């Protein structure tokens, strides 16, 4: 049976569109998943959130907002039905839960049912027995390897960096990359001053996402800023700075740049 030119063209068009839509579906499958912070403005800057399967380095000085940002990520992940493990040298479990509750990001219910786990690491003990620091790094790695949680938060690694060799710290990050390749998402906060510059550069190169938090003076006002230095899969490099404040009613609150400059 002979096919008319019109019917032939129609078949060609259908074949073309099927191919286009097939390619689009494949692209959709390839799009990375994200762990949301639960804050629309932060997610917008991060182009969706922290990419799953990434090792994220969070640098900052004292009171720059590192812990608050990690708590925000913990809250966002739990509300995404993720399981979270927090390893903390900064606070006790009770202090962490109480602070999140005070910022309207309470996770006590998740903690009770086991979706959120908090392990305390006594920083004072490490300072007294510095020879145990590298052994504890290995213990932390084993803990992360065996846990079922998708998101791992370490706040902070500074005490280990101060009391361990450079090779031990670099090896810890390298092993974390392998765990991320197997599906874990790991966020690690550090004080940048704890590392020699050469080591810090190497850590940044190992991590797929790097965020730096600072406290800056703008006029008579002190503000916290977060610079996205590196973000896996990001489509753009501009507009990578945001300013924020910690509000007792809303938690981490974005401050518009225009307001900051004013």
TrEMBL record:
It comes from the Archaea. Residues 41-256 form the KaiC-like domain. InterPro entries: KaiC-like_dom, P-loop_NTPase. Keywords: ATP-binding, Cell projection, Cilium, Flagellum, Nucleotide-binding. SUPFAM superfamilies: P-loop containing nucleoside triphosphate hydrolases. GO terms for molecular function: ATP binding. The keyword Ribosomal protein does not apply. This is Flagella-related protein FlaH. It comes from Methanosarcina siciliae C2J.
């Amino acid at each position: 049976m002979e096919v008319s030119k019109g019917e032939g063209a129609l078949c060609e068009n259908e074949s073309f569109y099927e191919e286009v839509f097939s390619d689009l579906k494949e692209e959709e499958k390839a799009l990375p998943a994200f762990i949301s912070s639960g804050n629309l403005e932060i997610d917008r800057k991060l182009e969706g959130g922290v990419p799953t399967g990434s090792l994220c380095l969070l640098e900052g000085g004292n009171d720059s907002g590192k812990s608050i940002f990690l708590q925000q990520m913990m809250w966002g992940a739990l509300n995404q039905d993720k399981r979270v493990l927090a390893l903390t040298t900064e606070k006790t479990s009770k202090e962490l839960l109480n602070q999140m509750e005070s910022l309207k990001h309470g996770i006590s219910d998740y903690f009770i049912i086991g979706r959120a786990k908090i392990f305390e690491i006594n920083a004072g003990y490490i300072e007294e027995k510095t020879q145990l620091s590298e052994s504890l790094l290995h213990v932390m790695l084993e803990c992360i390897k065996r846990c079922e949680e998708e998101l791992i938060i370490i706040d902070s690694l500074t005490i280990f960096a101060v009391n361990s060799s450079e090779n031990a710290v670099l090896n810890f990050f390298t092993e974390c990359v392998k765990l991320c390749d197997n599906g874990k998402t790991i966020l690690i906060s550090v004080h940048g001053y704890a590392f020699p510059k050469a080591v810090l550069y190497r850590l940044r190169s190992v991590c797929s996402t790097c965020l730096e938090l600072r406290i800056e003076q703008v006029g008579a006002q002190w503000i916290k800023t977060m610079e996205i230095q590196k973000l896996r899969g990001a489509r753009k490099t501009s507009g990578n700075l945001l300013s924020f404040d910690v509000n007792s009613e809303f938690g981490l609150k974005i401050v518009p740049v225009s307001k900051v400059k004013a």
